[in-house]
C-alpha cells in the first residue's frame, strides 16, 4: 500500500479536532466518513464544518459554491454505526476522548470491522500507540497521527511509530500527511507526549508551580512572556487548550513519567468548578468578552522568561538521548510548526552561558527533579552530543 491508494478516510469523533481533520481531508479531495456515537454529535460536527467552509473559504473566494456542494453532498458521509463507518475505508483516524479504556475499546472494534490493509491512526496527544495496537491483530498497521488545534490552520502532524508499526505504514502516513498539505515529523519511539507535548510538559509544570507557590500572578507572567516575543502567554494558552485537557495530560505524565507532573492545585480547583477556559467562558481568565487582553505594563522580574526555554531544551535533549527523534532539527521543526514558535529549542541554546547551572537552580527552587539537567548536559557533553547528529 502507498499513499496514492488512499481514497476514503474515516474520522472517529465529530468534535473540534475530529471535524477539523475531516475538513482538511475534504479540501484535499478525499472521501470522508465522519462518525460519532450519536446522530446529534455527527450533525453538530457537519454543521460546524459547513459554517467553517462558508466563513473561511467560500466568502474569501478560496472555493466555489459548486466545490462546497460537492464536498458536503458527495464526499462527506455522517455515520453512527461503527461497522458501516469503517468497513470500506483505507485509513481511520480516531479523535475520541483521551481515556485509555475508550480508545482500546475503539481499536478492538476497528480490528473487527476494517479491511486487512486499513491503517488505524490515533490522534492521541500523550498516550501509548503500542497499547492501542495490542488489542488488534494488525499491530503493524497501527500508528500515531497527532494533529494540532485547529487542524485546518496548524501545519504540524507528528507521525508516531509504535513498538510494532511497520516502516511501510510510517511511510504511507508520512506521504499521506504531505498530501493533506501538512508538515510531518517522525517520532521513532512511542514516548509519552511524543515531541511537542513532551517538550512543553516541563514548562507546563513550571508555570503550574509558579502559581501554586504564588511567585507571580497569571497576568504578570503572561505579560513578561509576551514582552520577550511569545505570541501568547502561558496561561492564556492553558485556557485556549482547555484546562481539563491540560489536567488529563499532566495526570498521564505523572503516572508514566514522574509524579512531578501531578496537576497543580489551582488547576484541579478550576477543573472541579467546571471553569475549563475558553470553551466554558472562564478559566484562569474571563473569556466572556473574547480573548483576554493582557496588560503589558504588568511584566515583572519575579520570574525569568528564559527558565521555560531552559527546561524545554533539557527535555529536548532527553528525547534525543532516548532515540525518540532522529535529529535536533526534527525537534526544532516540530516546535516551530506545532507551537507557532519563531525558533526551536536548539536554536535558542546560545542564550545560556551555564545551562547546567540554570537547570539545577530551577530544580532546587521549585523542588522538581524533572527540571534537573539530563545526563548529557550534566556531564558537559552537549556540544559534542549535538555535533554527532551532523556526521
Key structural traits:
8-stranded mixed beta sheet; N-(1-d-carboxylethyl)-l-norvaline Dehydrogenase, domain 2; 17 helices; alpha/beta; Rossmann fold; 391 residues; 2 domains
Mean pLDDT rating = 96
Q: Give me the strand/helix succession.
A: EHEHHEHEHEHEEHEHHHHHHHHHH
Q: Write out the strand line-up for the largest beta sheet, numbering strands in chain order.
A: 3-2-1-4-5-6-7-8
Which regions contain 5 or more consecutive residues with pLDDT less than 50? none
How many strands, which pairing sense, and closed or not: the largest β-sheet?
Answer: 8 strands, mixed
What would you report as the Rg, rounded to the nearest angstrom?
Answer: 21 Å
Helix content: 40-55%
- Quickly name the level 1 CATH class of the largest domain: Mainly Alpha
CATH-defined fold name of the largest domain: N-(1-d-carboxylethyl)-l-norvaline Dehydrogenase, domain 2
Relative strand content: 5-15%
Strand count: 8
Q: DSSP helix count?
A: 17
Count of domains: 2
Task: Specify the oligomeric state.
Answer: single chain
Mass-distribution shape: globular
Amino acid at each position: 500500500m502507498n499513499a496514492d491508494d488512499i481514497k476514503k478516510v474515516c474520522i472517529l469523533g465529530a468534535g473540534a479536532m475530529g471535524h477539523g481533520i475531516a475538513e482538511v481531508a475534504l479540501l484535499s479531495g478525499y472521501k470522508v466518513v465522519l462518525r460519532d456515537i450519536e446522530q446529534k454529535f455527527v450533525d453538530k460536527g457537519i454543521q460546524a464544518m459547513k459554517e467553517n467552509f462558508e466563513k473561511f473559504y467560500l466568502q474569501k473566494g478560496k472555493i466555489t459554491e459548486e466545490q462546497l456542494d460537492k464536498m458536503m453532498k458527495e464526499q462527506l458521509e455522517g455515520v453512527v454505526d461503527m461497522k458501516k463507518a469503517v468497513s470500506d475505508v483505507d485509513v481511520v483516524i480516531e479523535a475520541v476522548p483521551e481515556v485509555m479504556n475508550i480508545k482500546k475499546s475503539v481499536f478492538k472494534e476497528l480490528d473487527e470491522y476494517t479491511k486487512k490493509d486499513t491503517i488505524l491512526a490515533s490522534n492521541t496527544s500523550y498516550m501509548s500507540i503500542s497499547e492501542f495496537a495490542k488489542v488488534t491483530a494488525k499491530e503493524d498497521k497501527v500508528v500515531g497521527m497527532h494533529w494540532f488545534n485547529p487542524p485546518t490552520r496548524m501545519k504540524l502532524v507528528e507521525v508516531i511509530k509504535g513498538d510494532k508499526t511497520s516502516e511501510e505504514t510510517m511511510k504511507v502516513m508520512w506521504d499521506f500527511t504531505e498530501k493533506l498539505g501538512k508538515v510531518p515529523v517522525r517520532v521513532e519511539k512511542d514516548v509519552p507526549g511524543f515531541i511537542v507535548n513532551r517538550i512543553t510538559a516541563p514548562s507546563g509544570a513550571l508555570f503550574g508551580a509558579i502559581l501554586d507557590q504564588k511567585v507571580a500572578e497569571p497576568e504578570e507572567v503572561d505579560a513578561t512572556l509576551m514582552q520577550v516575543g511569545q505570541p501568547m502567554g502561558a496561561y492564556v494558552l492553558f485556557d485556549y487548550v482547555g484546562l481539563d485537557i491540560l489536567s488529563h495530560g499532566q495526570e498521564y505524565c505523572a503516572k508514566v513519567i514522574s509524579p512531578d507532573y501531578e496537576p497543580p492545585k489551582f488547576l484541579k480547583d478550576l477543573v472541579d468548578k467546571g471553569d475549563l477556559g475558553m470553551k466554558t467562558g472562564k478559566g484562569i481568565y474571563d473569556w466572556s468578552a473574547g480573548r483576554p487582553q493582557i496588560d503589558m505594563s504588568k511584566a515583572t522580574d519575579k520570574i525569568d522568561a528564559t527558565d521555560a526555554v531552559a527546561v524545554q531544551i533539557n527535555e529536548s535533549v532527553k528525547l534525543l538521548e532516548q532515540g525518540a527523534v532522529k535529529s535536533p532539527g526534527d525537534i526544532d521543526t516540530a516546535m516551530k510548526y506545532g507551537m507557532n514558535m519563531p525558533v526551536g529549542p536548539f536554536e535558542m541554546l546560545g542564550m545560556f552561558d551555564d545551562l547546567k547551572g540554570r537547570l539545577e537552580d530551577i530544580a532546587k527552587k521549585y523542588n522538581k527533579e524533572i527540571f534537573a539537567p539530563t545526563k548529557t548536559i550534566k556531564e558537559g557533553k552537549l556540544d559534542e552530543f549535538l555535533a554527532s547528529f551532523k556526521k
